[in-house]
Amino acid sequence: MLFQDIVFWFLGVVAIGAALGVVLTRDLFRAALMLIVVFIAVAGFFAMLSAEFLAVVQVLIYAGAISILIIFAVMLTRDVQRGNLPNRLQIPAALFAALVLATVAFVATDTNWNLIPEEERERVDLVQTQAVSNIAPETLAEAGFDSEQEQEAAGEAGLADLLIGDFVLPFEAVSVLLLAAVIGALALVRPQPPGSEG
Amino acid sequence: MSFEAMLIIAAALFAIGLYGALARRNVLIVLMSIELMFNAVNLTFVALAKYAAPVALQENIGSVLTGQVFAVFVITVAAAEIALGLAIVFAMYRTNESLDLTEATELRN
Question: What is the pLDDT of residues A124-179, one digit of tens each?
């Protein structure tokens, strides 16, 4: 538990420090590098919160693809070293962000959360890490999956099952959204044919 | 490591992203700040999935994965957003020769 706490606070300090670096540093390229640090720290949080799959996806999509795209965009622009200037809204924006933080922190600590009971903890962790189908039945029984039926249901529960099952409509909508975004991006950056305006 | 601490760290990330999106002139920094906010929201989703009990916990143990599914959707939408956002940045850079949002005034009036 102590080790977990150390890792948790380390990741928290790294994530928040790097996030402050993203918005406060003058150098656009350094801001992009700080953003990668934030992404990797968040991936660490995902791994700690028993969402291993999401941790891997976070590293692949965010730290891999999205940060490369952003660095690519930074490289194609001028004024990289002094690119990050504040606008006139700096103080109101800081006050507003602090207000949002205070509100959310108050709600998070003040709400009476319906937490997962301690005796369910082991079962929930096994399902969330999607490791059930790789575990011997005896270990599962120890974790609280008593009947064979329960063990089978836990083995079938998975992200893919939910994506293609209960969430199939948003899943399809998101695929259409991705297609539309790719086509839109291509249309926006297409070189204008000579002679045409706008 | 506690549930509330996790939520507060996510809220701090979100607030920093919010400040960056509102108070910075450079459009790339604004895009990065929006990514920060997406990450904070994802962190909240996953933390809630781990700690908060869903209503159907007893009937269907698979319901503890719902928060993670939402995080997958957010990651997908963020990828679409960054693709379109960077395309708009390039179009803007081509017409304005600058990434300064305060100079992007063609649509005014």
Answer: 777 777 665 666 666 777 666 767 777 766 666 778 888 888 899 999 999 999 99
Contact A12, B26 (CB under 8 A): no
- Asked if residues B12 and A101 have their Cβ atoms less than 8 Å apart, the reply is yes
Task: Tell me how crowded residue A69 is: count the other CB atoms within 10 A of its CB.
Answer: 17
Return the residue in A10, A16, A66 with the most chain B beta carbons within 10 A, the one to mutate for interface testing: A66
Global pTM value: 0.88
* Residue A166: strand, helix, or coil: coil
Non-local CB neighbours of A99 within 8 Å, separated by 6+ positions: none
Chain B 30-49, residues with CB within 8 Å of chain A CB atoms: 31-33, 35-36, 39, 42-43, 46-47, 49
Contact of B36 with A22, CB cutoff 8 Å = yes
User: From residue A121, how far is each of A31, A46, A103 by CA, in Å?
Assistant: 39, 17, 29
Whether the complex's predicted ipTM is more than 0.90 is answered with yes
Give the pLDDT confidence of A42-98 residue by residue, as tens digits: 999 999 988 888 999 999 999 999 999 999 888 888 777 776 777 788 899 999 999
CB contact under 8 A, B62 and A157: yes
- Are A100 and B8 inside 8 Å of each other by CB? no
d(CA A177, nearest CA chain B) in Å: 7
- Residue B13: strand, helix, or coil: helix
Extract the tokens encoding B76.
């997908």
Chain A residues lying within 8 Å of B25, measured CB to CB? 84-87
Please work out, in degrees rounded to the nearest 5, the angle formed at the alpha carbon of residue B83 by the alpha carbons of B78 and B88.
120
How far A9 CA lies from chain B's nearest CA (Å)?
A: 8
CB contact (8 A) between residue B12 and residue A16:
yes
